[in-house]
UniProtKB/TrEMBL annotation:
Lineage: Bacteria, Pseudomonadati, Pseudomonadota, Gammaproteobacteria, Pseudomonadales
Gene3D superfamilies (UniProt xref): 3.40.50.2300
Residue ranges of domain Response regulatory in the record: 11-127
One of the record's GO molecular function terms: DNA binding
Name of the protein described by the UniProt record: DNA-binding response regulator
InterPro entries recorded: CheY-like_superfamily (IPR011006), NreC/VraR/RcsB-like_REC (IPR058245), Sig_transdc_resp-reg_C-effctor (IPR016032), Sig_transdc_resp-reg_receiver (IPR001789), Tscrpt_reg_LuxR_C (IPR000792), WalR-like (IPR039420)
Organism of this sequence: Pseudomonas rhizophila
Modification sites for 4-aspartylphosphate: 62
Domain HTH luxR-type per the UniProt entry, residue ranges: 143-208
Origin: domain of life: Bacteria
Pfam family, one: GerE
UniProt KW keywords: DNA-binding, Phosphoprotein
Amino acid sequence: MSVHPENEQIRVLVVDDHPLLREGIAAVLEAQSDIALVGEATNGHEALQLFRSLRPDVTLMDLQMPEMDGIEAIHAIRAEFPCARIAILTTYRGDVRALHAIKAGAIGYLLKSSLRKELLDAIRSIAAGNNHFPAEIAVELADHLSHDCLTAREIQVLQCVAMGKPNKQIAAELMITEDTIKGHLRNIMDKLGASNRTHAVTLGIQRGIITV
């Protein structure tokens, strides 16, 4: 991966469907002489088109967006531009989507709540050819990778719980016994570190395991 020349401005593309976040990043970058915001996109399709035309040094990519999400966009960009330096923007620590994004080729991880402190260092570090995973995030990612992920059946059960279905109905729909459903729920709560089924649903949504 080539390193960005020190005497040239670092060109940044921001991809996020929330105008306020984009404006906040733009305001921070505006004051920097060595960094220039060259483009803004609101979904993955726009991100790919802008990446092709702008060839930014660093791309900041939100994960949850309409039309094409961040993970799909990372796959698409990296397929055409293997050396693209992309950092993900995420709201939650321990987001399963973040693991998928890193597997797709993201080399940086930024929590939106930490942008004020970390944004500039992260951009400069990534432009210089480094990965940027804050220590506490690196530990959590390793922790997530080492834990058993939910099985396809457990995800199915959790999705049904999220839709408000009682165990009896879930058992009937999946053609398994209520006791089996209870066993799946115990495993789900165990793996997610949830205190009850509602908490498990909340964590499942936050981490991108299920959608509502």
